[in-house]
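Hey, resending since the last one bounced:
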Amino acid sequence: MTAETRDISFSKEALADFSDESIRQELARILGSRTFRRAKSQKRFLRYAVEQTVTRKSHEVKEYTLGVQVFGRGAAFDPRLDPIVRVEARNLRIRLAKYYETEGEHDPLRIELPPRGYVPKFREAIPPALSTQTQPAEDASAESGLLDAWTDAALFTPPDPAIDSGRQVSAHVDPGPVVLSGRWRSARLLQALFVLAIGAAAVILLRERKAADIAPSIAVLPFQNVGDVKDESFSDGLTDELINSLGRVAGLHVVGRTSAFQFRGKAIDVREIGKRLGVATVLEGGVQIYGDNLRVTVELMDATNGYSLWSSTYERRFEDALFLQRDISEAIVARFEDKLRLSSDQVRSVNAEAYRDYLRGLYFWNKQSSDSIEMAGHYFERAISLDPGYAPAYTALGLYYAQLPEFTRTRARDVASKVRDLASTALQLDNRLPGAHTDLAIAYFMDYQWSAAEGEFRKALQLGPGDAMVHSWYSSYLKGAGRLEEALAESRIAQALDPVSTKMQNRTAHALYLLRRYDEASEQYKAALSLDPQYGPAHMGLGIVLTEQGKYQQAINELRRAAAGLGNSPAPQSDVALAYCAMGETSEANNILHTFLAQAQAGSFPLKPIAKIYLGLGQKDQAFEWLAKAIEARDLYLDLKADPIWDPLRNDPRFTALLKSARLI
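The structure tokens again:
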């Protein structure tokens, strides 16, 4: 049976026994309600469907006719290719249900859209006290508990044997029809009605409170690649871009990438995902690439009850992929009605191959290894060569250079100018890109231009308040500036935005370490390792804390694990040397130091680890010498004002000179 045939089958019974005037009055109440205030397309849908039914033209309420008459699709509209009517019908059913749960609870009749048709039906409303309709799933348990308490106090009060002797009084609350038999005393009946009235008011308040408590929040799950396996980089990249785009919406809590991607390929109920991530909505989608075109299907789910809030299918040519991203973001923000506003950024077409390379770069970038970021840098550079006007590619390449000192032996001084130039170019093309301001802030951070860096970080946070990475970088800057309580607050914001990210957990732990809250730092590092037992930086941080706590052998074990996970990074090895120094076993520390000195003489090498080992060996003059070299080379993460490792040097006038050299005083 087709949809159009189903429409006709409903038309005979649709009007039931209601007058045209009563139906139109109910329609007017609905269209003028707060629930439908901003639902323009659904209001047009409902008005058209009801009017056609009332005027005995329900046979015209068909999917094709609705597409043309209500949604302006034109004579070429094909319902098989364009799901607009089905999508809006689903949205209309949801909004009608919401209306009758709230504002329309006491309306004398109900207008309903059948689940498998478009011709509305009308029925008499059942008074709430006699309704057999079950509670919505999300309210059932709490409201059921309230109702139980009220009925225990009122309806189930035992009859007085002296008065009601020989008369049976029973009450049944299911909460289906309430059946009362026997004779009640007037006072008791009034008591029952009074308590139930209070209960009903409390239920309404409970519902309103719950609705107010659920702040706008969303997790964008990794989009499924439904085509060639080689296109997975595109589906992942599009997911990243949507997370970044929504992260720019003030007032919207967007879960970070790491936390969202943990659910890739897992068949987990959306309500469970909502509980784990602390969000009210979840976005799922699929991507198919065919030739120079792409098809993207998306569905927004209510994480409190598992219901679909909205779904759509988009088909675009590849060069219009940015318009697709914008349209999806706008549609999602529109679901939150007047609570949010999406920034009105200009969107341009992009070279199709450049956009593919950009998304491939993001795909490899997120693998976070020395090999993968090199591959990412290659793709970002190629994207720029193919489309020199595409600003995000410059931002991504800038971040690639900014991270090189962390993954390789590149010195910050050698890449700071490249990061700054790329960020400046990106800002010339689009000055509202949070990532471009972040890159420029990092470039200033690398050059110890603290005030300029803070200004750019604040611009980035203003444009991308929900971007966990921006908060994380700002936290690192604040640590370097010695503003530790602020750094901890920013790292916790980043962690809240990306709650199962090992990196975010690790940075919070590091802030606690700098604050000398070692027990808390230890627990936080262990929490990070519970998410990823192989994460080298967390093993290194835990090893450093254990050294400060005097647990040297445990510290060495953790630091060895860190060295294994971080490849040829000298940082964990220098901390191994410090632990041996603390134990009085300096021979191993000297071996590590001599290896570092040879490598530093041969080429680029981070200098902080050498200064640390000299300090551990008690050779303060050499420690000052190498710290001065590290400042000259603009080594990052020296944390001169905060790291406990430098405490033995702080009372020396030479340390004050170092702080001045690093522009920290």
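The chain has 29 helices and ten strands.

Sorry for the duplicate.
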